[in-house]
Design a protein that fits this description.
Elements lengths: L7 H7 L3 H12 L14 E3 L5 E3 L5 E2 L14 H13 L6 H8 L4 H13 L13 E8 L15 E10 L2 E10 L4 H11 L5 E5 L13 E5 L7 H4 L1 H16 L10 H13 L6 H12 L26
Parallel strand pairs: 4-7, 7-8
Antiparallel strand pairs: 1-2, 2-3, 4-5, 5-6
Helix pairs in contact: 3-10, 4-5
Protein backbone atom coordinates (compact mmCIF):
# COMPACT_ATOMS: atom_id res chain seq x y z
CA UNK A 1 0.00 0.00 0.00
CA UNK A 2 1.37 3.40 -1.01
CA UNK A 3 1.78 5.84 1.87
CA UNK A 4 1.78 9.59 1.38
CA UNK A 5 3.22 12.56 3.27
CA UNK A 6 0.79 14.30 5.60
CA UNK A 7 2.56 17.64 5.93
CA UNK A 8 5.04 19.77 4.04
CA UNK A 9 7.68 18.78 6.59
CA UNK A 10 7.09 15.09 5.80
CA UNK A 11 7.19 15.92 2.10
CA UNK A 12 10.61 17.55 2.36
CA UNK A 13 12.00 14.80 4.60
CA UNK A 14 10.75 11.93 2.45
CA UNK A 15 11.77 13.22 -0.98
CA UNK A 16 15.34 14.38 -0.45
CA UNK A 17 16.64 12.92 -3.71
CA UNK A 18 15.38 12.45 -7.26
CA UNK A 19 15.59 8.70 -6.68
CA UNK A 20 13.08 9.02 -3.83
CA UNK A 21 10.65 10.74 -6.19
CA UNK A 22 11.13 8.15 -8.93
CA UNK A 23 10.45 5.32 -6.51
CA UNK A 24 7.24 6.97 -5.33
CA UNK A 25 6.05 7.41 -8.92
CA UNK A 26 6.99 3.80 -9.65
CA UNK A 27 4.77 2.65 -6.77
CA UNK A 28 1.90 4.67 -8.23
CA UNK A 29 2.43 3.66 -11.85
CA UNK A 30 3.18 -0.01 -11.27
CA UNK A 31 1.06 -0.65 -8.19
CA UNK A 32 0.95 -4.37 -8.98
CA UNK A 33 4.64 -4.55 -9.77
CA UNK A 34 6.70 -3.59 -12.80
CA UNK A 35 5.75 -5.13 -16.14
CA UNK A 36 7.91 -4.70 -19.22
CA UNK A 37 5.93 -2.95 -22.02
CA UNK A 38 7.66 -5.18 -24.60
CA UNK A 39 7.81 -8.73 -23.23
CA UNK A 40 5.55 -8.27 -20.17
CA UNK A 41 8.22 -9.69 -17.89
CA UNK A 42 7.92 -8.62 -14.27
CA UNK A 43 11.62 -8.92 -13.54
CA UNK A 44 13.88 -5.89 -13.81
CA UNK A 45 16.71 -4.08 -12.08
CA UNK A 46 17.22 -0.36 -11.59
CA UNK A 47 20.12 1.36 -13.36
CA UNK A 48 22.14 4.28 -11.97
CA UNK A 49 19.96 6.62 -14.04
CA UNK A 50 16.83 5.29 -12.37
CA UNK A 51 15.64 3.26 -15.39
CA UNK A 52 14.06 -0.20 -15.15
CA UNK A 53 16.17 -2.68 -17.16
CA UNK A 54 14.05 -5.69 -18.12
CA UNK A 55 15.79 -8.98 -17.36
CA UNK A 56 13.82 -10.69 -20.09
CA UNK A 57 14.46 -8.55 -23.19
CA UNK A 58 16.85 -5.89 -21.96
CA UNK A 59 14.51 -2.97 -22.65
CA UNK A 60 14.94 0.12 -20.52
CA UNK A 61 11.77 1.71 -19.15
CA UNK A 62 11.46 5.10 -17.48
CA UNK A 63 8.83 5.75 -14.87
CA UNK A 64 8.16 9.19 -16.40
CA UNK A 65 7.95 8.11 -20.08
CA UNK A 66 4.51 8.66 -21.57
CA UNK A 67 3.28 10.56 -18.51
CA UNK A 68 2.74 14.19 -17.58
CA UNK A 69 6.43 14.28 -16.62
CA UNK A 70 7.61 13.03 -20.02
CA UNK A 71 10.70 14.86 -21.23
CA UNK A 72 10.72 17.32 -18.34
CA UNK A 73 13.89 19.18 -17.45
CA UNK A 74 12.41 20.33 -14.17
CA UNK A 75 13.59 18.17 -11.23
CA UNK A 76 10.97 15.78 -9.88
CA UNK A 77 11.48 17.27 -6.42
CA UNK A 78 10.28 20.57 -7.87
CA UNK A 79 7.30 18.83 -9.43
CA UNK A 80 6.41 17.31 -6.07
CA UNK A 81 6.64 20.68 -4.33
CA UNK A 82 4.48 22.21 -7.05
CA UNK A 83 1.85 19.46 -6.68
CA UNK A 84 1.75 19.97 -2.91
CA UNK A 85 1.48 23.74 -3.29
CA UNK A 86 -1.34 23.40 -5.83
CA UNK A 87 -3.52 21.16 -3.65
CA UNK A 88 -2.82 23.37 -0.64
CA UNK A 89 -4.12 26.55 -2.26
CA UNK A 90 -7.73 26.99 -1.21
CA UNK A 91 -8.46 29.58 -3.88
CA UNK A 92 -6.50 27.99 -6.70
CA UNK A 93 -3.02 28.23 -8.11
CA UNK A 94 -1.55 30.78 -10.50
CA UNK A 95 1.58 30.51 -12.61
CA UNK A 96 2.98 33.73 -11.17
CA UNK A 97 2.41 32.51 -7.62
CA UNK A 98 4.01 29.16 -8.43
CA UNK A 99 7.03 30.84 -10.02
CA UNK A 100 7.60 33.02 -6.97
CA UNK A 101 7.01 30.24 -4.44
CA UNK A 102 9.36 27.70 -6.03
CA UNK A 103 11.82 30.13 -7.57
CA UNK A 104 11.28 28.78 -11.08
CA UNK A 105 13.48 30.32 -13.79
CA UNK A 106 10.62 31.75 -15.88
CA UNK A 107 6.90 32.40 -15.95
CA UNK A 108 6.61 30.16 -19.02
CA UNK A 109 8.07 27.21 -17.07
CA UNK A 110 5.57 27.71 -14.25
CA UNK A 111 2.69 28.13 -16.70
CA UNK A 112 3.55 24.92 -18.57
CA UNK A 113 4.02 22.97 -15.34
CA UNK A 114 0.65 24.14 -14.05
CA UNK A 115 -1.13 23.18 -17.26
CA UNK A 116 0.42 19.73 -17.18
CA UNK A 117 -0.76 19.19 -13.61
CA UNK A 118 -4.21 20.52 -14.52
CA UNK A 119 -4.35 17.76 -17.12
CA UNK A 120 -3.73 15.29 -14.29
CA UNK A 121 -6.78 16.60 -12.45
CA UNK A 122 -9.06 14.78 -14.89
CA UNK A 123 -9.53 11.08 -14.19
CA UNK A 124 -10.34 9.03 -17.27
CA UNK A 125 -12.42 6.62 -15.17
CA UNK A 126 -14.38 9.18 -13.18
CA UNK A 127 -18.04 8.34 -12.71
CA UNK A 128 -20.88 10.33 -14.21
CA UNK A 129 -23.05 12.66 -12.17
CA UNK A 130 -26.24 11.20 -10.73
CA UNK A 131 -29.60 12.91 -10.47
CA UNK A 132 -31.21 15.09 -9.66
CA UNK A 133 -28.82 17.30 -11.66
CA UNK A 134 -29.28 20.96 -12.51
CA UNK A 135 -27.86 22.13 -15.86
CA UNK A 136 -27.51 25.63 -17.24
CA UNK A 137 -25.10 27.86 -19.14
CA UNK A 138 -23.29 31.06 -18.27
CA UNK A 139 -20.94 33.47 -20.00
CA UNK A 140 -17.44 34.12 -18.71
CA UNK A 141 -15.03 36.73 -20.01
CA UNK A 142 -14.75 40.46 -20.40
CA UNK A 143 -17.66 42.79 -20.99
CA UNK A 144 -18.24 43.74 -24.61
CA UNK A 145 -20.63 46.63 -25.25
CA UNK A 146 -23.52 45.66 -27.51
CA UNK A 147 -23.37 41.92 -26.79
CA UNK A 148 -26.85 40.50 -26.30
CA UNK A 149 -28.60 37.16 -26.04
CA UNK A 150 -26.45 34.05 -26.50
CA UNK A 151 -23.86 35.57 -28.83
CA UNK A 152 -20.28 34.45 -28.11
CA UNK A 153 -18.06 37.26 -29.49
CA UNK A 154 -15.42 37.99 -26.85
CA UNK A 155 -17.07 35.91 -24.16
CA UNK A 156 -17.08 32.15 -23.76
CA UNK A 157 -20.16 30.06 -23.10
CA UNK A 158 -19.74 27.56 -20.27
CA UNK A 159 -22.25 24.80 -19.55
CA UNK A 160 -22.48 23.62 -15.95
CA UNK A 161 -24.00 20.50 -14.42
CA UNK A 162 -24.29 20.14 -10.64
CA UNK A 163 -25.81 17.44 -8.47
CA UNK A 164 -28.68 18.74 -6.34
CA UNK A 165 -28.71 17.30 -2.82
CA UNK A 166 -31.53 19.19 -1.15
CA UNK A 167 -30.09 22.48 0.01
CA UNK A 168 -26.58 21.28 -0.72
CA UNK A 169 -24.68 20.63 -3.90
CA UNK A 170 -22.85 17.47 -4.87
CA UNK A 171 -20.28 17.11 -7.63
CA UNK A 172 -19.96 19.46 -10.60
CA UNK A 173 -18.85 19.24 -14.24
CA UNK A 174 -18.07 22.24 -16.41
CA UNK A 175 -17.14 22.59 -20.07
CA UNK A 176 -16.71 25.34 -22.64
CA UNK A 177 -19.55 25.04 -25.16
CA UNK A 178 -19.06 25.73 -28.87
CA UNK A 179 -22.57 27.19 -29.02
CA UNK A 180 -26.00 26.87 -27.41
CA UNK A 181 -27.32 24.25 -29.81
CA UNK A 182 -28.87 20.98 -28.68
CA UNK A 183 -25.88 19.12 -30.04
CA UNK A 184 -23.57 21.01 -27.67
CA UNK A 185 -25.74 21.31 -24.57
CA UNK A 186 -27.71 18.06 -24.62
CA UNK A 187 -24.56 16.30 -25.79
CA UNK A 188 -22.72 17.58 -22.71
CA UNK A 189 -25.47 16.18 -20.47
CA UNK A 190 -25.27 12.77 -22.16
CA UNK A 191 -21.53 12.62 -21.57
CA UNK A 192 -21.47 13.82 -17.97
CA UNK A 193 -24.74 12.61 -16.39
CA UNK A 194 -25.72 8.98 -15.83
CA UNK A 195 -28.51 7.73 -18.10
CA UNK A 196 -31.95 7.74 -16.50
CA UNK A 197 -31.12 10.58 -14.11
CA UNK A 198 -33.50 13.40 -13.29
CA UNK A 199 -32.14 16.46 -15.15
CA UNK A 200 -33.47 19.94 -14.43
CA UNK A 201 -32.96 22.80 -16.94
CA UNK A 202 -34.60 26.04 -17.96
CA UNK A 203 -37.00 26.12 -20.89
CA UNK A 204 -34.32 26.45 -23.58
CA UNK A 205 -35.28 24.34 -26.58
CA UNK A 206 -31.72 22.99 -26.87
CA UNK A 207 -32.47 20.66 -23.95
CA UNK A 208 -35.69 19.28 -25.50
CA UNK A 209 -34.00 16.10 -26.72
CA UNK A 210 -33.00 14.99 -23.20
CA UNK A 211 -36.12 12.85 -22.80
CA UNK A 212 -35.38 10.95 -26.01
CA UNK A 213 -31.79 10.54 -24.80
CA UNK A 214 -33.04 8.57 -21.80
CA UNK A 215 -33.26 11.24 -19.07
CA UNK A 216 -36.16 12.30 -16.86
CA UNK A 217 -36.17 15.89 -18.05
CA UNK A 218 -37.78 18.67 -16.06
CA UNK A 219 -37.88 22.02 -17.87
CA UNK A 220 -38.57 24.94 -15.57
CA UNK A 221 -39.98 28.06 -17.21
CA UNK A 222 -39.40 31.46 -15.69
CA UNK A 223 -42.40 33.49 -14.63
CA UNK A 224 -42.77 37.12 -13.67
CA UNK A 225 -42.33 36.23 -10.00
CA UNK A 226 -39.24 34.04 -10.37
CA UNK A 227 -35.63 34.69 -11.35
CA UNK A 228 -33.03 32.46 -12.94
CA UNK A 229 -31.50 31.96 -9.50
CA UNK A 230 -34.84 30.72 -8.15
CA UNK A 231 -35.28 28.24 -11.00
CA UNK A 232 -31.84 26.66 -10.76
CA UNK A 233 -30.29 27.80 -7.45
CA UNK A 234 -27.41 25.31 -7.29
CA UNK A 235 -26.08 25.80 -10.79
CA UNK A 236 -26.25 29.59 -10.46
CA UNK A 237 -24.29 29.39 -7.22
CA UNK A 238 -21.58 27.43 -9.03
CA UNK A 239 -21.56 29.96 -11.87
CA UNK A 240 -21.09 32.79 -9.38
CA UNK A 241 -18.24 30.97 -7.61
CA UNK A 242 -16.58 30.22 -10.95
CA UNK A 243 -16.61 33.86 -12.05
CA UNK A 244 -15.26 35.07 -8.71
CA UNK A 245 -12.52 32.42 -8.89
CA UNK A 246 -11.47 33.42 -12.41
CA UNK A 247 -11.44 37.11 -11.46
CA UNK A 248 -9.79 36.63 -8.08
CA UNK A 249 -7.12 33.98 -8.63
CA UNK A 250 -6.46 34.59 -12.31
CA UNK A 251 -7.42 38.26 -12.60
CA UNK A 252 -9.82 37.34 -15.40
CA UNK A 253 -6.80 36.70 -17.63
CA UNK A 254 -7.66 33.21 -18.85
CA UNK A 255 -7.22 32.59 -22.57
CA UNK A 256 -10.34 31.21 -24.20
CA UNK A 257 -8.40 28.40 -25.88
CA UNK A 258 -7.20 27.15 -22.46
CA UNK A 259 -10.46 27.73 -20.60
CA UNK A 260 -11.36 24.03 -20.33
CA UNK A 261 -8.17 23.38 -18.33
CA UNK A 262 -9.18 26.03 -15.79
CA UNK A 263 -12.72 24.65 -15.66
CA UNK A 264 -11.31 21.22 -14.84
CA UNK A 265 -9.20 22.73 -12.06
CA UNK A 266 -12.25 24.47 -10.63
CA UNK A 267 -14.19 21.19 -10.71
CA UNK A 268 -11.28 19.29 -9.13
CA UNK A 269 -11.13 21.75 -6.25
CA UNK A 270 -14.87 22.06 -5.74
CA UNK A 271 -15.50 18.32 -5.80
CA UNK A 272 -12.84 17.86 -3.11
CA UNK A 273 -13.75 20.88 -1.00
CA UNK A 274 -14.53 18.77 2.06
CA UNK A 275 -11.27 16.79 2.01
CA UNK A 276 -9.13 17.40 5.08
CA UNK A 277 -6.07 15.51 3.83
CA UNK A 278 -3.71 17.53 1.64
CA UNK A 279 -1.45 14.50 1.47
CA UNK A 280 -4.14 12.30 -0.02
CA UNK A 281 -4.96 14.93 -2.65
CA UNK A 282 -1.25 15.21 -3.41
CA UNK A 283 -1.02 11.46 -3.96
CA UNK A 284 -4.17 11.34 -6.11
CA UNK A 285 -2.84 14.14 -8.31
CA UNK A 286 0.48 12.36 -8.87
CA UNK A 287 -1.30 9.03 -9.27
CA UNK A 288 -3.23 10.44 -12.20
CA UNK A 289 -0.16 12.26 -13.51
CA UNK A 290 1.51 8.92 -14.31
CA UNK A 291 -1.64 7.68 -16.05
CA UNK A 292 -2.32 10.51 -18.50
CA UNK A 293 -0.21 11.31 -21.53
CA UNK A 294 2.35 14.07 -22.15
CA UNK A 295 1.35 17.66 -22.85
CA UNK A 296 4.11 19.30 -24.97
CA UNK A 297 4.62 23.04 -24.63
CA UNK A 298 4.20 23.45 -28.39
CA UNK A 299 0.64 22.12 -28.17
CA UNK A 300 -0.29 24.87 -25.70
CA UNK A 301 1.23 28.01 -27.20
CA UNK A 302 -0.76 30.19 -29.54
CA UNK A 303 -0.86 28.85 -33.07
CA UNK A 304 -1.45 32.32 -34.37
CA UNK A 305 1.62 33.96 -32.87
CA UNK A 306 3.83 30.97 -32.14
CA UNK A 307 4.68 32.59 -28.80
CA UNK A 308 4.07 31.40 -25.31
CA UNK A 309 2.29 33.21 -22.48
CA UNK A 310 3.51 36.41 -20.90
CA UNK A 311 3.02 37.21 -17.20
CA UNK A 312 0.40 39.88 -17.77
CA UNK A 313 -1.80 38.33 -15.10
CA UNK A 314 -1.73 35.68 -12.43
CA UNK A 315 -3.03 32.80 -14.54
Amino acid sequence: MVTYPRSVAELEARFLREADCREFLAELRWSNGFQCPTCESGKAWVTERGLRMCRGCGRQASVTAGTVFHGTRVPLRTWFRAAWWIVSQKNGASALGLQRTLGLPSYQTAWHLLHRLRRAMVRADRTQLEGPVEVDETFVGGFHPGTRGRSLLRKALVVIAVESRGRRTGRVRLRKAADSSGRSLAGFVSETVAAGSHVITDGLQSYASLTSRGFMHEARNQSASTSDEDLLPHVHRIASLLKRWLLGTHQGGVDREHLDAYLEEFGFRYNRRTSRSRGLLFMRLLENAVRVGPLPYESLVSRRTGRGPKPRHKG
